[in-house]
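ARCHIVE CARD
Drawer: 12
Card no.: 0347
Subject: one protein chain, sequence and derived structure
Cross-reference: see card 0346
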Amino acid sequence: MAARCAYLLSMAAMCLWWGLTPPGAEAAETSTDVVQLYNTFCVQCHGLQRNGKGINTVDMSVQPRDHTDAKGMGDIPDDEMFRAIKDGGLAVNKSVLMPPWGGVLSDDQIQQLVGYLRQLCCQAKNPAR
C-alpha cells in the first residue's frame, strides 16, 4: 500500500513538474465547475445547503425542491431533471417559478448539473460516517 501511494505521489509530482495534468484532475475541475454553476444559478432558491430554503423562498407560494432529499430526488428520472432545468418547471408540469435555464446554460452544463443533483441526494442517503 505504501509503495502504491509513493508511486502515485511521484507520478503526480512529475506531471506537475512537466506542466501536465495529473490523472483525475479533469474530474476535479468539472466538479468545481458544476458546483460553481449551482452556486451561481440555483442557490438563490434551492439554498446554500441545497435543501430548498434559499434566500428567494420567503414569499414563494411553492417551495423549491430539496436536492438533498434522497427519496424525492430518487423518484425523478434524469431526463425529467434535464428538461426542468433547460425548459423550466412548466415543461415537466411543475412550478412556473422554476425558470428555464436553456438560454443561459449549454446542454453539457445542464447534464453536469443533473449529475451533481444525483450526487447530492446520494450523499444525503449515505452520509459519511
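Annotation on reverse: Residues 107-125 form the longest helix (19 residues). Residues 1-30 have pLDDT under 50 and may be disordered.
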